[in-house]
Amino acid sequence: MSHNDCIFCKIIAGDIPCFKVYETDNILCFLDIGPVNKGHALVIPKEHHENLWALPTELGKDILEACQKAGKAIVEATGADGLNVGMNNHEAAGQLVFHAHYHLIPRFKDDGHDHWQQQEYENMDEAAQLADKIKGLID
Ligand code: 5GP
Ligand code: ZN
Q1: Is 0.85 topped by the overall pTM?
Q2: How many Cβ atoms from other residues are within 10 Å of residue 87's Cβ?
Q3: Is the pLDDT at 1 greater than 70, yes or no?
C-alpha cells in the first residue's frame, strides 16, 4: 500500500533520497532532515498507514526492535546522554507527515530542549473521574 502524494512513501520507493541507518522487510529508519538534535532519526513502516491507530498491531514488534537497535546506535554515535522516542498523531499534536512514524531524538544534558510544560489537576477527584472515563472507553 503506497500513497502517491506521501513523501515517506516516495522515500521508501527510492524516488526521494534519504540517509538510511536501518532497514528490514517491514521497516525503514533514516535521518530526519530537520533534526531536533543531530542524529534525530525516523522509524517508519514501509506500508502506508496514517497514524498510531491505523497501524496493524503485528508491526509492533518490528517497530520496537527498530527503535531499540537504531536508538542504541544513535546514542552511541552521537555521544548522547539520553533518547526521546516520540510520535505525533493528528495536526494538533504536531503531525506534519501523515505516514505513521516514530521520532528517535538523541538528547544531551543542557541541550535546551526542556521538558514539556506540565499542569496540575484541580483535585484528586478530577483525576479519578478522568481515569474512569478513559478506562470505560477502552475495548
Ligand atoms: P511530524 O511532525 O509529522 O511528526 O514529523 C515529520 C518529520 O519529517 C519532521 O521532523 C521533518 O523534519 C521530517 N521530514 C519531512 N520531510 C522530510 C524528507 O523529505 N526527508 C526527511 N529525511 N525527513 C523529512
Ligand atoms: Zn506513505
Answers
A1: yes
A2: 16
A3: no
